[in-house]
């Protein structure tokens, strides 16, 4: 079944714009009357993924599809990839550079937050090729 | 208590009013690591921090907190403030340390 679809381009060089996709999706979901709890989970998961695309890769594309029973988000970048996904998923693991740590990133909590706030999450990554994160939140 | 009432009572500066006259502070979270805040802050918390950049505002919006309280006399830059204005985020500033603001919030919330 095909539902509502949105695509967001994420600029890999601009920290100040990171968060735009999640803010924009949040507004759309609110206008559609999606429940606040679902909106909050979508916003948090998408923001963390979006920031990772900026600080660990060089931006990319986010595709969101919403049907009456679920919201699917696909975040695709062509960055350096994740060598050990299991390690990356651990709370506290971070390879963030000092300059982004000084902006408040690098707690190593982004991927765990994404996992916690979604019903399904899967990462596909190839070193030197890029990373794709698939996240699903059920609405009902 | 609303963020603006809290500011008036304890002498914090209201930098952006946003929705700070309507929302009630129902809890509080102190932190500077943004994804920690993202994971732990609850809706309608006062978010107390020393991290002053545009991503602080983004986290405040997405975590749906009642206000941002910037401590230690630190200031937001104009870009962050204009983002706060657009998104109706209430921003307060204080010269006091995070712990002291936390104590004041704790008192108002009946936690200490
Ligand atoms: N899109 C990505 N491309 C390459 N590496 C990534 C990507 N996303 C995450 N990583 C790797 O996984 C690690 C853990 O990510 P996570 O989001 O949990 O923490 P962080 O981004 O380092 O810090 P925080 O999210 O707490 O600010 C990162 O430090 C990085 O090494
Ligand atoms: Mg992260």
UniProtKB/TrEMBL annotation, chain A:
Keyword ATP-binding tagged: yes
Entry keyword set: ATP-binding, Nucleotide-binding
Entry's Gene Ontology molecular function annotations: ATP binding
Entries under Gene3D superfamilies matching the protein: Histidine kinase-like ATPase, C-terminal domain
UniProt keyword Nucleotide-binding present: yes
A family per Pfam: HATPase_c_2
Protein name: ATP-binding protein
Ranges where the Histidine kinase/HSP90-like ATPase domain occurs: 17-136
Native organism taxonomy: Bacteria, Bacillati, Bacillota, Clostridia, Eubacteriales
């Amino acid at each position: 079944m095909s539902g509502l679809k949105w695509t967001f381009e994420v600029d890999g060089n601009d920290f100040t714009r990171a968060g735009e996709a999640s803010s924009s999706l949040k507004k759309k979901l609110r206008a559609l009357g999606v429940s606040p709890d679902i909106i909050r989970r979508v916003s948090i998961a998408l923001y963390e993924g979006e920031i990772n695309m900026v600080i660990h890769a060089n931006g990319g594309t986010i595709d969101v599809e919403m049907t009456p029973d679920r919201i699917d988000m696909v975040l695709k970048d062509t960055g350096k990839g994740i060598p050990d996904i299991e390690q990356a998923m651990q709370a506290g693991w971070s390879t963030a550079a000092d300059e982004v740590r000084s902006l408040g990133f690098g707690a190593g909590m982004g991927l765990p937050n994404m996992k916690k706030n979604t019903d399904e999450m899967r990462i596909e990554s190839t070193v030197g090729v890029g990373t794709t994160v698939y996240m699903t939140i059920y609405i009902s | 208590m609303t963020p603006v009432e809290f500011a008036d009572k304890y002498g914090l500066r209201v930098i952006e009013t946003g929705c700070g006259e309507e929302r009630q502070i129902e809890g509080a979270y102190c932190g500077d690591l943004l994804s920690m805040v993202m994971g732990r802050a609850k809706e309608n918390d006062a978010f107390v921090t020393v991290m002053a950049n545009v991503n602080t505002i983004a986290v405040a919006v997405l975590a749906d907190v009642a206000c941002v309280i910037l401590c230690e006399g630190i200031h937001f830059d104009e870009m962050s403030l204009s983002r706060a204005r657009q998104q109706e985020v209430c921003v307060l500033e204080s010269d006091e340390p995070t712990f002291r603001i936390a104590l004041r919030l704790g008192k108002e919330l009946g936690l200490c």
